[in-house]
Amino acid sequence: MEKHFFFKNKVEKNLLGFLCTPEKNLLNTGIVICQPIAEERSRSKRVLVNLSRYLAYNGYQVLLFDYFGEGDSEGSFEEADINSRLSDIEDAIKFLRNGQNIKIGLIGLRCGASLAAISAKKTIVDFMVLLQPIFDGQEFINDWLKINLSAQLVTYKKIIANRKELINKLLRGENIENGGFIISERLYNGFKMIESSSILSHEFAPIAIIEINETPKIIKSLACKNVLENNKNYAFVKEKAFWNSLKNYNPMPESLFSSILEIISNFNVNNGKNC
Amino acid sequence: MEKTVEFLNREKKKLFGIVHIPNNYGRDERCGIIFMNAGIEDRVGPHRINIKIARELCKKGYLILRLDNFGIGFSEGELKIGTNSENFFLVENGLFVNDTIDAIDYFKKEFVLTKIIIMGFCGGAVTALLSASFDKRINNLILLEPPVYLDSNTSNTQINPLEAKKALRGKFFKLFLPKSWIKVITLQMDLNKLFRYFLICIQDSFIDSNNKRTLGKPINENFVNAYLAYISSQRKILIIFGDDTNTSNEFKYRFYDKYHNIKTRDTTKLIRIKNANHEFHSLSSQQLLINAILNWVDVNN
Description:
Number of helices of chain A: 10
Shape of chain B: globular
Oligomer: heterodimer
Largest sheet of chain B: 8 strands, mixed
Helix content of chain A: 25-40%
Number of strands of chain A: 11
Structural class of chain A: alpha/beta
Mean pLDDT of chain A: 89
Low-confidence stretches of chain A: none
Mean pLDDT of chain B: 86
């Protein structure tokens, strides 16, 4: 069964929610899906809708929601920042829990994965599955600003403000237009707090990382060694980066979906402990 | 107020939408505006452009439905797995026309409407035009960056000389960057593609202006026929482009100059927005876009 609705966050703003509930064999576990941001949200939307339906078919209650300032939720993109998104995740968890005595897991994609991991420090969750998380917020922003640089080349036939100058603008409190979105100083500063140690620490809840790529890369990173030494909390899925893809269309990456289901099932069997 | 809605299409698939209801709703003339999906993006649109437009129109008292066609957003059904181009091709050939008609049935009945405007962006604009060509319940059309050509997933697609010149211009400025030369040396740059663009530009300089119109991706005959059918019914149409986009240039050189005449002058309004790209990324272009739509809807409603 599916329902869509608006629910209020803690500052009384409307957030759009999409709730998938199993019709039978309901398990005692709810899942909140934390979406990526900006255009990555648009490109991955259908995959996450289908993931919600797939997990519901397999017995899980799933809530997919739009952060304040994103999607159909209230507010503009520039009014929101990392802290508002973290707060929205807390509110989504509370909404799904709704007084039920159920386990709650988070599944996050890209920035949503990083946010899920950070939010678990404050909000009790039973497990997290992080899909291609962003380990370095500064690097993400640097890459994202390529859109602004390309736009300058097209409009002015040259770069007027390079990346360093754009970042200085942000630090002075000026907003930057980037591919139709507005990056504020608050958002930029929030991204700077996303780094691997804040994501990989699993003293708050067990985590699993799924790398979605053409070839494995995360496992070679030194930052991941402490979590990934036994490879038990890590899975690699060979898939194109659907959150970024302008060419390919696959809204049902089956290998990814079955990997996620297997990991969540293992978390459930082991009562939320590390596999 | 914004609320979620759903209804069944003729294939019994649930279609999802968001309705924007103005505070002072209850206007005598019950006019509703339906926003189509941009290509295969959901009802939000690129960088939430549909939401920005809808919220401004709603503030002025207009009732809006932002629709997800089948296979998009929360709606049921699935699109073809493969490439985006394959799906764009299907959209440009009327994939979502039936859903549009079904959405009109729902919207008119649910809100007791007497007038319907359809707005579409890119592929959504094509859907809007194709639907309006035979459904006379659509009173007016707003088309944003409509492509007159057909997408293709084959590599044999002809490249429009204007596109080739633009691409070469962009590459020319990068020649001064050391990392561009590193890309050339390490074979990361597609030199074949650059050479092809160069040849097209040379070829173009020898072709007379009449024949230039036949170069590029094949023209969408469905678009041409739908436009002529729509115009012949004397209904109004607003078409908005960025001022130097590929879509805009294709439209002007391969379609508008040929089909715009004295009969279409009173019904068709064409606006080009300065410094706007295909998706109206800049804040200033978004504001100009919204103002243009608001003004036209106010005058023609």
